[in-house]
Amino acid sequence: MAEQPQPISPVKNFFAGGFGGVCLVFVGHPLDTIKVRLQTQPKPQPGQPPLYSGTFDCFRKTLVGEIQAATGETKYTGSLDCAKQLYREAGIRGVYKGTVLTLMRDVPASGMYFMTYEWLKNILTPEGKSVSDLSAPRILFAGGLAGIFNWAVAIPPDVLKSRFQTAPPGKYPNGFRDVLRELIREEGVASLYKGFTAVMIRAFPANAACFLGFEVAMKFLNWIAPGL
Fold first, then answer.
1. Can you spell out the DSSP letters for 119-168?
2. Per the structure, how many domains does the chain have?
3. Which range marks the domain in which residue 112 is found?
4. Where are the Solcar repeats (predicted)?
5. Does any domain span residue 147?
6. Of 35, 99, 183, 191, whose CB neighbour count within 10 A is largest?
């Protein structure tokens, strides 16, 4: 007799998804910092080299800079302090700065992300088997490729978002349109793909870990609470 499919549980999906998110951040966060540094580095003056020559140069300089900053004064003591200062400077708009650009990035990119993951899971499932029986290597492969497809769509709006959020108040009165015009005018279309190498190095392992964490957590929750 065929095994009955496990009913969808919003509670289990919430906690399993949260665990997958923890796995993604744990694996991918260092390179996310490098990505933002590369995306927001200023345009070099004529005859001067750029602040970072590439992903690995940025990693080295960031590591050295953080070590030196550990003995000096920091602007924010933590996430809450940062939120307080942003709210004090610009109100609730300061805390939500870049929301439109984040939506422009995440809506199409997330659609590509989950579409690719589900498509690859179905392709990788052997005939006569259930998708839920996929092995860990196949889940890692599907999740990693889904991450690459996600960021292939997300990089341009992510660059605009990083630039807009780190700009001084009032620099871009018309929002992302001003950021886009400035980048294209001063640095060309290729500037919309700043941080590409760091993003792609991060995308596969981080998102592979995310989906593997989700699937493992879901199996665990189904085991300990089958009726939830």
1. HHHHHHSPTTS-GGG--HHHHHHHHHHHHHHHHHHHHHHHHHHHHHHHSP
2. 1
3. 10-68+75-194
4. 8-123, 134-220
5. yes
6. 35
